[in-house]
Amino acid sequence: MKRASRDRRRDEILDVAVQVLSERGYRDASMLEIANRAAASKETLYAWFGDKQGLLAALIERNAQLVQAVLAGHLKGEAPPERVLFEFGRALLELLLGDSAVAINRAVIAEAKSDPALARTLAAGGRQAVLPSFIRLLERYAEHEELKFDDAAQAAEDFLGLLLGDTQIRRLHGVLPRPGKAQIEARAVRATRAFLLLYGRERMDELS
Amino acid sequence: MKRASRDRRRDEILDVAVQVLSERGYRDASMLEIANRAAASKETLYAWFGDKQGLLAALIERNAQLVQAVLAGHLKGEAPPERVLFEFGRALLELLLGDSAVAINRAVIAEAKSDPALARTLAAGGRQAVLPSFIRLLERYAEHEELKFDDAAQAAEDFLGLLLGDTQIRRLHGVLPRPGKAQIEARAVRATRAFLLLYGRERMDELS
DNA sequence: CAATAACCGTACCCAGGGGTACGAAAACGT
DNA sequence: ACGTTTTCGTACCCCTGGGTACGGTTATTG
Question: Taking CB atoms and an 8 Å limit, are B123 and A28 in contact across chains?
Answer without folding.
Answer: no
